[in-house]
Design a protein that fits this description.
Blueprint: E1 2-6, H1 8-12, E2 17-19, H2 31-50, E3 61-70, E4 79-84, H3 86-105, H4 109-116, E5 136-137, H5 140-150, H6 154-157, H7 165-180, H8 184-196, E6 199-205, H9 211-219, H10 227-237, H11 243-254, H12 260-263, E7 265-268, E8 271-274, H13 275-288, H14 296-304, H15 315-334, H16 342-350, H17 357-366, H18 371-391, H19 399-410, H20 417-425, H21 437-450, H22 455-469, E9 486-490, E10 502-504, E11 507-509, H23 517-522, H24 541-553, E12 560-564, H25 569-572, H26 576-584, H27 590-596, H28 603-620, H29 624-630
Parallel strand pairs: 2-4, 2-5, 3-6
Antiparallel strand pairs: 1-6, 3-4, 7-8, 9-12, 10-11
Helix pairs in contact: 2-7, 2-8, 3-4, 3-7, 3-8, 9-10, 11-15, 13-14, 13-17, 15-17, 17-19, 18-20, 20-29, 21-28, 22-28, 26-27
Length: about 625
């Protein structure tokens, strides 16, 4: 390596061309973290020049760039590939373009022409994107945008263009205009400050050096680069790959990563990061069968790549695997109903379960299971998951660790449906057991609310039962009947005591009337824990017992349904006959039609409906025994 202290004038002052490899990330610098601080520094250095303050040769260290010279003919412009530092070099080119255009608009031609010498190689006339007149050739993503700015046609051609190039150009042009206000001396001072007052360490590496190692040492600990960026640069900078092969590998296996889809920040689990980072994490978890893969790039190097043997120990194999896995991962994330993978993944998206993604990647890419077997395993996983969410306090906790164990168990072997069901059903711990039908019965009887299950779980269960009742595809969400439009409704209201009378001696009585005034006065919490001692008359015992049973069955699935849209509180707490007329009678839902057939709503109806709904639940999400008997 040959480190040298340079500045912008040194870098761009001679005939030279810097080329950013097409596999590197495109221009990503932004306003708050990069443009604004850099502009403030430029403005300060310009002011110091105007005030004739003493300046050192490099009064402001801007960072390092790593370059490697490419072979060229003697009549060609010397070319250098940028291994690291492309963001700052691109930014300085953008600033020079903005300064040139402002000077030209003010008819300061001599300044404009001088600035242009640091943007274009004089005497080179090629108009191709990678022509020798350009001092900087960016990635393919940014090439057209920078070309337009360099040629002075940004405002006409770049409106709506993706990327940060135009935004950076617009920002610096605006800042220069505000600062200079047409003053020739300020523009000259600004120009010389940019050229001479920003020190850069230029590291020229030899052909024998390993550029990927240098790149990692400079960037591996920084926050600016994603772990996925480190991976990309390592894969393409390995010295044994020729430039021609590298470009082919990029187009075949990596170019699809270079779009906004993979850069989008998403919340998956507890982390909000670029989608590419989540993919990288889940790829490693699927490949290694472990839930501990931090830091990602080091784990990739030391655990995954280190163990690749033979033909697998090559960039082409690694890139092909990343590409193959990414296509499946996109189906997992997009949940497209036309996809055999995306369709069943909609269930996990509703409950925000991402911890299964590594196992799904393994299942589809490595398990050797057939398409039909994979479809059945999806059903098994869904049944296992919904029963755990409904019946246990653990829900899907520790899924990362548990399914890492599953991956290790079946790694290298075809997943047999029977052995998979057997493995899940053999789990006895609270964090892994598969609840049986008795557990489901207890949970749907109302125990779900006592152990803290989210009511949206019951809302979803009823939604799927609605689909089953319509004799449609009961194994996924229906686009014509979207889940999100429904709310959960208690038929017997949670506050039933306000409007629902209790039958008594051929008539009826309110809950409040059961208890004496003295009792209610002496016990402020009497409504929460009513006691028989507070009854006005012993003959009220039967009505009192009925009240307790109502309280116990409020959260039973037999007393729950789904309705479209929220209800106002007066309708929600109304008596059954009033609710029946306004809520259920005209509804198109099968669940509502069944309720509307009832003359009254009492404990018998609730218990009978609960039994029927439990049966339907178990039909949609069978237990392990049923899968073994009928599907394996």
């Amino acid at each position: 390596m040959q480190p040298t202290n340079v500045n912008v004038s040194t870098l761009f002052g001679n005939k030279i061309q810097f080329r950013i490899p097409l596999f590197q990330r495109h221009y990503v610098w932004g306003l708050e973290d990069q443009w604004q601080p850099l502009w403030e520094d430029i403005q300060e250095k310009s002011n110091q020049r105007l005030q004739q303050q003493k300046r050192g040769k490099f009064s402001h260290f801007t960072g390092a760039i790593v370059i490697q010279q490419k072979s060229t003919n003697v009549d060609e412009v010397p070319k250098y590939e940028i291994i690291d530092g492309q963001q700052r070099l691109t930014t300085f080119q953008i600033i020079l373009c903005a300064l040139r255009e402002i000077c030209a608009s003010l008819e300061f031609k001599e300044i404009s022409d001088e600035v242009n010498n640091y943007i274009l190689n004089k005497g080179m006339l090629s108009k191709e994107y990678d022509g020798e007149q350009y001092k900087l050739i960016p990635t393919e993503f940014d090439r057209f945008s920078l070309k337009c700015i360099v040629e002075g046609s940004a405002s006409d051609t770049l409106v709506g263009k993706k990327g940060q190039i135009l935004s950076a150009y617009t920002y610096f042009r605006q800042m220069i205009n505000i600062y200079a206000t047409g003053d020739r001396n300020k523009l000259l001072s600004l120009f010389h400050a940019v050229l001479n007052d920003f020190g850069i360490v230029q590291i020229l590496i030899d052909s024998d050096d390993e550029p990927e190692m240098i790149f990692e040492s400079l960037n591996g600990r920084g926050k600016a680069l994603l772990q996925f960026d480190l991976l990309r640069n390592n894969l393409f900078l390995r010295t044994r790959i020729s430039e021609e092969d590298r470009d082919t590998l990029y187009q075949d296996y990596w170019s699809h990563f270079e779009n906004n889809y993979w850069e989008t920040e998403v919340m998956l689990g507890r982390k909000k990061e670029a989608l590419s980072e989540h993919f990288f994490q889940h790829f490693l978890m699927a490949k290694l069968g472990t839930d501990s893969v931090t830091p990602l790039f080091k784990v990739y190097q030391r655990q995954y790549r280190k163990n690749l043997l033979g033909d697998q120990n090559s960039s082409s194999y690694e890139l092909s695997e990343l590409s193959r896995y990414s296509k499946v991962y996109k189906e997992i994330i997009d949940c497209n109903t036309e996809s055999d993978i995306g369709l069943p993944m909609r269930f996990y998206k509703i409950f925000d379960i991402t911890s299964l993604h590594p196992f799904i990647l393994f299942l589809v890419n490595e398990s050797k299971a057939t398409k039909d077997e994979i479809a059945l395993i999806f059903r098994i996983l869904e049944s296992y998951t919904i029963r755990r969410i409904l019946c246990t306090t653990q829900g899907h906790k520790n899924y990362n660790k548990f399914f890492s164990d599953v991956i290790r168990k079946f790694n290298g072997n075809k997943i047999c449906v029977n052995s998979f069901v057997e493995y899940l059903s053999d789990q006895n711990s609270d964090t892994a057991k598969w609840p049986d039908d008795r557990d489901v019965q207890s949970a749907l009887n109302g125990n779900w609310s006592k152990i803290g299950v989210n009511k949206n779980v019951l809302r979803y269960i009823l939604y799927r039962i609605e689909l089953l009742s319509r004799d449609e595809n009961r194994f996924t969400e229906n686009n014509n009947l979207p889940f999100k439009q429904f709310t959960l409704e208690h038929i017997l209201p949670q506050k039933w005591r306000e409007n629902w009378q209790l039958p008594f001696s051929g008539s009826s009585i309110s809950f409040n009337e059961l208890f004496s005034e003295e009792y209610k006065k002496n016990d402020p919490l009497w409504e929460l824990l009513p006691s028989k001692e507070g009854l006005v008359d012993p003959s009220y015992s039967e009505a009192y017992e009925l009240a307790l049973e109502r309280d116990n069955l409020i959260q039973s699935i037999g007393n729950l349904t789904i309705v479209t849209g929220p209800l106002n509180s007066s309708l929600s707490n109304a008596h059954f006959l009033d609710k029946k007329e306004s809520l259920f009678f005209n509804s198109t839902l099968m669940l509502s039609k069944e309720i509307s057939k009832c003359e009254n709503w009492n404990l018998t109806e609730i218990r009978e409906r609960e039994r029927n709904l439990v049966v339907k639940f178990c039909k949609i999400w069978p237990d392990a025994r049923t899968f073994n008997q009928n599907f394996a």
